Amino acid sequence: MKTTVELDDALLKMCKALAVKESTTMKALIEEGLRLILSRRHQQASRQKTPVKLPVCSQSGGVLSGVNLNDASDLEDRMNA
Question: Where are the domains of the chain?
């Protein structure tokens, strides 16, 4: 399929030079680049949609008797004791 794409002049020059150096075509380089970026984006999207299972603690516990979680200085005193 044919299409027209406007490219930055510097990018176009680099693409032409690389195509000559690697004995390939600009079309092949552009297709390779598009495949690469589309593959990366697809992988990123797939990872974001995968739900994460978090571990569940089955141990009992809680706050020690007499500890006030709303009193920062009391908590600091207990931690430093």
Answer: 14-49
